[in-house]
Amino acid sequence: MDEFSFIESIKQQFYKQSTLLKGIGDDAAVFRQHAQDIVTAVDTFVEDVHFSKDTMEAFHVGYRALAANISDLAAMGATPAFYLVSIVIPKSWSDQELAQIFSGMKELASFYKMDLIGGDTVSGNELTLSVTVFGYVEQERARYRSTACAGDIVFVTGTLGDSQAGYHILTTPGDYTDSDYFIRRHQLPSPSVEFAKRLKKLSRVALNDISDGLASETAEIAEASQVTITLYDNFIPTSKSMQQFTEDLQHKWKLYGGEDFELLGTVSIQDWEIVKEIADETNTRISKIGYVTVDEDNGSVFLVQHNKRKRIYKRGYTHSI
């Protein structure tokens, strides 16, 4: 399929966002927004670095690529609106597979009423997918990592380590309990957009999405806010079926496993009840896992495990394929 035919095949027949003035069809898209702030994020996904045909169908590649970006918008408290897709296409990927990549993105985008408004296509040696998203947030309600304060409660949504468990199941033959659940969590993550949006009633909450693992994301908040964060190992939520794996794997996945795309946050004790109410309203599992202090260890993260408190460090996450 030539480039123009490909663009025509992925072009939307109608648009959902009322702020869009011009979508695909000119040199650039145009949208207008007066009342809210615009939030944007971009991620790039490379074959055999961020994904592989061995563990992902083409549909999952597109779905998860957009989900990762939507999770970034959720962490900012934003409502998803638009996305752009640039793709480097190797000869090893068929037209049908490329269509499935965009079908995966389209399915998730439809759920959030997002519009595809442009992008680019070129030929290359390996499939590379770059997704840019735009969202809206009420003025003065964008959420930052730098607003954690002493006395805050630290919380997370969902359960952690599920994505890495799913990857393990896909790559390590064996007889597993709830394998479909873990694989789905790896291939088709669900960003916590509605929960994050409802937090707009709070004047202050620090948020970060868990894409590179809990230890890394917590360190980013501690460093940005210049605070000390203490986590309790036995409070970090995991799925019941996680017990089938060794303690070492459970520990590794819940602290350092990436791509769960849950939310990590800190909020004042006074607002904790409101956060729990919002979690109930949005059917979001939420867990209190630690607290924030200000002391000589500012910028650090500590873990309490077996009644011992030790510092944990920000590790770089190696993306699963």
Summarize the structure.
The protein is an alpha+beta fold and 321 residues long.
Task: Provide structural commentary.
The protein is α+β, with helices and mostly antiparallel strands and 321 residues long. It folds into 2 domains: 136 residues, PurM-like, N-terminal domain (60s Ribosomal Protein L30, Chain: A, 2-Layer Sandwich), CATH 3.30.1330; 168 residues, Phosphoribosyl-aminoimidazole Synthetase, Chain A, domain 2 (Alpha-Beta Complex), CATH 3.90.650. 31% of the residues lie in helices and 27% in strands. It is built from 9 helices and 13 strands. The strands form 3 sheets. It has a 7-stranded mixed beta sheet with strand order 8-10-7-11-9-12-13, sandwiched between helices. A hairpin with a 2-residue loop joins strand 12 and strand 13. Helix 2 runs parallel beside helix 3 and helix 4 crosses helix 5. The two termini are 28 Å apart.
Tally of individual helices: 9
Q: Give the second-level CATH assignment, the architecture of the largest domain.
A: Alpha-Beta Complex
Strand content: 25-35%
**Helix content range of the residues, please?**
25-40%
CATH topology of the largest domain: Phosphoribosyl-aminoimidazole Synthetase, Chain A, domain 2
- Report the biggest beta sheet as strand number plus sense, adding barrel if it closes: 7 strands, mixed
Instruction: Kindly provide the name of the CATH class of the largest domain.
Output: Alpha Beta
Question: Rounded to an integer, what's the Rg over CA atoms?
Answer: 20 Å
How is the largest sheet built, in terms of strand order?
8-10-7-11-9-12-13
Shape: globular
Please mark out the parts with pLDDT under 50 across 5 or more consecutive residues, or reply none.
316-321
List the secondary-structure elements in sequence, H or E.
HEEEHEHEEEHHHEHEHEHEEE
